[in-house]
Amino acid sequence: MSNIPLRNGQYTVQAYDVNLAESTFEDVALTAATFKYTSLESATFELVRFDGATLHNVGFDAATMDRVSFVRARLTNARCDHIALDNVDLAGASIANTSFKDAHLERIDFSGATITGGRYVGTTLEGIAVELLLELHRMHSGAVAPEEA
């Protein structure tokens, strides 16, 4: 399964070991969805809600996200390398051992998020709260290159 267009609706998703690379997700609610060992590489996400979702060992490499919500979602061992995130809400999310290598994060809300482990080498951050930048710097000394806070 690949290149699936999901648009304008609410979907109940339980995906395990599925290839959804290069798919398009537009104006959809995937609240409380479960994605495990799933490839979402080079996918496009616009106006998507992953609120309360579980994303374990998911590959978002080279994906683009604009106006996406992960409120209270759980991202564990996810790969978000070379990803472009703009105006993404991760408030209250649990992010563990997730890689954001060479990623571009702009206007991301991390308020109340729990971030443990992970990799942020070569990642640029714009419009991110200073407290988060300091926390990431403490966790990965020298790994974060903030442009503007």
From TrEMBL:
PANTHER family in alphabetical order: THYLAKOID LUMENAL 17.4 KDA PROTEIN, CHLOROPLASTIC (PTHR47485)
InterPro entries in UniProt: 5peptide_repeat
SUPFAM superfamilies documented for this protein: Pentapeptide repeat-like
Organism of this sequence: Xanthomonas hydrangeae
Protein name: Pentapeptide repeat-containing protein
Keywords in alphabetical order: Repeat
Top-level taxonomic group: Bacteria
Keyword set includes Repeat: yes
